[in-house]
């Protein structure tokens, strides 16, 4: 990575705006991809980032772990024998562990998983599991046999690498799962302390993740609607609740064949039991909008904004066609309030110019496919010199319309009897009603709510925040590898999902930290860049004191130093070695 800047004149002053870029190959070209917009690198931004860093991770560089007591030792060194040993990844795990402690999860796990007669505290094993899932998602076997030995976690946690094995990691999974409720309750409090997150508005969505293997012993593993396009695999459904800013507050796991609407009451009751009831506003997509759920939410006094199925738009055909009453709340977005006919709910009619263009293009594409296929079929019928089976032709038409369902209603297709050799003729008419409805409904959607004291813009913007829940699922799947699930036991599956959830807590904490520091919202870029910072053992053979082993941290390059400065992090220069398995020839 390297720095680029642009200069602009504003109010008679020259402003220099910096950005961090990296070279990325796209096909045959190499382009500069912006990693973070750094602004003017002003002192105020740096102070704010450092204040958050102190609040989040304290000042670990001053801890006893980083004081080896040899700073003032002066000895003559034999240069011929100087060497470097034991290089480890340091920067990414240092940041992951800082986030683990800053979110309070380290302290909470020490309380929930108290030390007993075991050789390794279970709280440390939990830290290993979550840090590995954040930095380099992999199996417990890979963590034990490869990843942990390549990182400086053994130094940072004061944990012998030989003690980290797959059996201990599996046992830590089992113990951590027992405290899921306490972990979620803690996160609800801590996110408000760190980032002033408002958890009165709760965003709720459901996804699925699939299994590799039969998962025969897991009753939750069932075949259902797969968001991963793997209908051939069993799956589980995960219902996730995040705050308005996207900070995760809790989740529940359901059988893979559970419909979204069947999860609503369980999720609402569970989350309110942990986070309280007063003032909650639930926001969910149209998959949860069953009549039973809506009636239950109204009867129990809960407030909500829920997307309505596309078919509900026909209820408001007159309002959609009427040009008056629409208000543009954003470029290309207009909304209009109406009353739901059968209830006291408010309907938020929304119209998006981008969505309209997309739906028009889809209708046109499918219509062209149908028209071309029908023209080909009509020509084949006309050229036929033998009598054709009308039932067989109708089945072909049915398959064609099924493949292009979005525009199927635009065509009225009939087979008419004639005296020609084929015995029939294809007759096609375009539906004027379809075109009229498309003209007023393309790009439109409707929401329903029982909130009376919010403006139309507030209601729409709150619903659009559901993209935060969708983004959380993408991160879980693409960055934290919650899918596919290789575990076969039901409890291990639940524990795997819990570790992914906790890793996402660290991910989101880092993302919100980056945003406040003016570094964009790409935690993976920061983690990958800091992973290049390593720790090394420098061996100094002396003429008077034998060999001295110094565990040193590589100094960051300019780009890394800039990232750390914006985040308000000061890396230590040395670490102690006396409490580890590597001996010192001499203790100073």
Briefly, what is this?
The protein has 588 residues and is an alpha+beta fold.
Please characterize this protein's 3D structure.
The two termini are 40 Å apart. The protein is 41% helix and 22% strand. The model is unreliable at 60-64 and 579-588 (pLDDT under 50). It is built from 19 helices and 18 strands. Among the domains are: 197-308 and 453-486, Nucleotidyltransferase, domain 5 (2-Layer Sandwich), CATH 3.30.420; 355-441. It has 588 residues and is α+β, with helices and mostly antiparallel strands. A hairpin with a 6-residue loop joins strand 13 and strand 14. A nine-stranded mixed beta sheet has the order 7-6-5-8-9-15-12-11-10, with helices on both faces. A four-stranded antiparallel beta sheet has the order 4-16-17-18. Strands 1-2-3 form a three-stranded antiparallel beta sheet, covered by helices on one side. It has helices at 43-57, 91-102, 105-112, 122-135, 140-150, 153-156, 166-177, 180-195, 264-275, 291-299, 317-321, 353-383, 390-403, 432-441, 456-464, 466-478, 490-516, 523-530, 558-567, and strands at residues 2-10, 13-26, 29-39, 83-89, 201-210, 235-242, 248-255, 281-284, 303-307, 327-330, 333-339, 346-352, 411-417, 424-430, 444-449, 534-541, 547-553, 574-575.
């Amino acid at each position: 990575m390297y720095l680029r800047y642009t200069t602009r004149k504003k109010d008679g002053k020259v402003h220099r705006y910096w950005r961090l870029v990296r070279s990325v190959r796209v096909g045959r070209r190499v382009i500069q991809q912006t990693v973070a917009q750094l602004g003017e690198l002003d002192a105020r931004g740096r102070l704010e980032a450092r204040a958050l860093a102190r609040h989040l991770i304290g000042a670990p560089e001053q801890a006893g772990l980083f004081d080896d007591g040899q700073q003032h030792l002066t000895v003559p060194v034999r240069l011929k024998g100087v060497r470097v040993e034991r290089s480890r990844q340091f920067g990414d795990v240092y940041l992951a562990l800082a986030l683990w402690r800053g979110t309070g999860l380290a302290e909470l796990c020490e309380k929930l998983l108290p030390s007993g007669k075991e050789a390794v505290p279970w709280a440390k094993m939990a830290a290993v599991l979550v840090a590995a899932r954040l930095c380099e998602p992999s199996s417990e076997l890979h963590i034990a046999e490869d990843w942990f030995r390549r990182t400086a976690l053994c130094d940072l946690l004061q944990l012998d690498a030989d003690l980290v094995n797959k059996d201990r990691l599996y046992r830590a999974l089992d113990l951590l799962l027992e405290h899921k409720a306490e972990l979620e309750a803690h996160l609800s409090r801590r996110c408000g302390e760190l980032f002033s997150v408002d958890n009165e508005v709760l965003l709720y969505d459901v996804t699925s993740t699939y299994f590799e293997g039969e998962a025969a012993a897991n009753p939750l593993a069932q075949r259902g609607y797969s968001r991963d396009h793997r209908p051939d695999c069993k799956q589980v459904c995960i219902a996730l609740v995040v705050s308005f800013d996207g900070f995760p507050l809790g989740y529940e796991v359901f059988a893979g064949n559970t419909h979204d609407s069947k999860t609503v009451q369980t999720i609402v009751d569970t989350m309110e039991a942990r986070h309280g009831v007063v003032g909650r506003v639930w926001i969910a997509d149209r998959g949860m909008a069953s009549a039973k759920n809506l009636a239950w939410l109204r009867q129990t006094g809960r407030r909500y904004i829920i997307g309505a199925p596309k078919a509900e738009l026909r209820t408001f055909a007159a309002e959609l066609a009427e040009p008056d009453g629409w208000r543009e709340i954003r470029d290309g977005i207009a909304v209009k309030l109406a009353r739901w006919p059968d209830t006291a709910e408010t309907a938020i009619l929304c119209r998006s110019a981008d969505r309209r263009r997309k739906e028009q293009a889809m209708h046109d594409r499918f219509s062209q496919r149908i028209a071309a296929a029908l023209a080909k079929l009509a020509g084949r019928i006309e050229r036929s010199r033998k009598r054709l089976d009308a039932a067989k032709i109708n089945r072909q038409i049915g398959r064609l319309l099924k493949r292009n369902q979005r525009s199927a209603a635009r065509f009225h297709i009939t087979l008419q009897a004639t005296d020609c050799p084929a015995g029939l003729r294809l007759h096609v008419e375009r539906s004027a009603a379809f075109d009229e409805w498309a003209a007023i409904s393309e790009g439109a959607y409707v929401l329903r709510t029982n909130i009376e004291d919010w403006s139309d813009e507030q209601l729409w913007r709150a619903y659009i925040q559901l993209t935060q829940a969708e983004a959380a699922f993408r991160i879980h799947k693409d960055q934290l590898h919650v899918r596919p699930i290789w575990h076969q036991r039901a409890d291990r599956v639940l524990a795997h999902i819990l570790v992914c959830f906790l890793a996402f807590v660290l991910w989101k904490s880092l993302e919100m930290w980056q945003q406040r520091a003016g570094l964009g919202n790409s935690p993976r870029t920061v983690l990958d860049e800091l992973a290049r910072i390593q720790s090394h053992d420098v061996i100094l053979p002396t003429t008077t004191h034998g060999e001295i082993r110094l565990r040193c941290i590589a100094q960051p390059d300019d780009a890394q130093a800039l990232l750390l400065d914006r985040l308000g992090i000061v890396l230590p220069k040395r670490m102690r070695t006396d409490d580890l398995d590597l001996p010192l020839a001499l203790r100073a």
